[in-house]
Amino acid sequence: AQERPNDRHPNPNFVKDDIRHRNRSRESLVRMELDRISEEHPMHDQNSQVNKVNKNREICVCRLKTRAVQLSTDHSTSLEEEVLRIKAEHVDDNQTIINDRVKGQLKVTRAFGAGFLKKPRCNEALLEMFRIDYVGTAPYISCFPSILHHRLSSSDHFLVLSSDGLYQYFSNEEVVAH
């Protein structure tokens, strides 16, 4: 077979890495995702304040109890409270939630970025084909965090910070088991 110019990627390792990535088992994907988006939190400070915004979920593993303790709430359309909040802020818009997504676009209800769902002028700056039908001026999604204060103890082993992508596929227990 003759190689064509379009068959080559500028970075040949990218293609190899992509093939390797696709061939990994579910367990390996967990490890890769944890390596990529989780951070080990230094536990020398007895108090830890957790800010929950966007797609992140923080869980703390208590060694003595050998279980994952979820310290944050997933702010998404899966939470009825979040859906009701958005609908209450947009009573004139009967299409605030479409296919379990805010304006049919985003599953998370609190996020940094996504300005087109926060301000009409950001929505208007998009190409017409990407715009949403923005009704009113209130934001559809929020960037206001919910804050939880958690006192760390010697039984807390580590803290996992990650995006919602990880938790679409794995439970808290599956994540901390690896």
Describe it for me?
The chain has 6 helices and 7 strands. The chain is an alpha+beta fold and 178 residues long. The chain has one domain: 4-Layer Sandwich (Phosphatase 2c, domain 1). The strands form 3 sheets. The protein has a 3-stranded antiparallel β-sheet. A hairpin with a 4-residue loop joins strand 2 and strand 3. InterPro entries: PP2C (IPR015655), PPM-type-like_dom_sf (IPR036457), PPM-type_phosphatase-like_dom (IPR001932). This is PPM-type phosphatase domain-containing protein. GO terms for molecular function: protein serine/threonine phosphatase activity. It comes from Davidia involucrata.
CATH class: Alpha Beta
Classify the helix fraction into a percent range.
Answer: 25-40%
* Strand numbers in spatial order across the main sheet: 3-2-7
Number of strands: 7
How many domains comprise the coordinates? 1
Strand content: 15-25%
Helix and strand content put the structural class at alpha+beta
The CATH superfamily turns out to be: PPM-type phosphatase domain
Listing every helix as H and every strand as E from the N terminus to the C terminus, the arrangement reads: HHEEEHEEHEEHH
